[in-house]
Amino acid sequence: MSLDRGQGLRDIRAFTSGTTKLIVIDPYAYAGESRESGRYVSELAKAAHLPELKALHVVFSSSRGNTALIRKGIARVARESGAKFTDTDSDLIHDRIWIADRERALVVGTSFGGLGSKAAFLLPLPGIDLKELLRFLDERRLV
Predict the structure, then answer these.
(1) Would you give the DSSP letter of residue 107?
(2) pLDDT tens per residue, range 26-57
(3) How many helices (H) and strands (E) are present in the chain, helices listed first?
């Protein structure tokens, strides 16, 4: 269980280590205060190993109070690191899940911005559930 933002960020960074294609499903991925956007983008880039990624795809929900600065910042940092950046707006997924190379997934009990502000778990998603989630995403063209 992560009660500390720093530890949660390290746990996510350990999960994404060696990943080349990352999918981040988080309805609140772009939510947050504009004044905090620089820190948020920097932390996400570090947690995702952006300089090493070839592709980053974010599934977010525009109905969750998005901050344009966060979205633009993530797109800019991805582009500067040479990663292809794409995103999809959808209200079809409630949970927060990070998927590494379509082979492993981590369920993150809170949005990235809320990591460390409340007790939340970071748990591996079982393979059978990942397979079903990928089928769901593909069928609905969310990735």
Answers:
(1) E
(2) 999 998 888 888 998 999 999 999 989 999 99
(3) 4, 6
Q: Which two tokens stand for residue 129?
A: 């559930």
Contact 71, 37 (CB under 8 A): no
The β-bridge relationship of strands 84-89 and 122-124 is unpaired
Which amino acid does the sequence have at 45?
Answer: A
* 81 close to 56: Cβ distance less than 8 angstroms: no
Q: Choose among 69, 68, 4: nearest CA to 39.
A: 69
Spatial neighbors of 19 by CB under 8 A, at least 6 apart, are 48, 49, 52, 53, 100, 101
Cα 30 from Cα 75, distance rounded (Å): 11
CATH of residue 21's domain is 3.30.870.10
> How many domains does the structure of the chain reveal?
1
Domain around 91: 5-139
- The model's pTM: 0.91
> CA-based diameter of the chain, in Å?
40
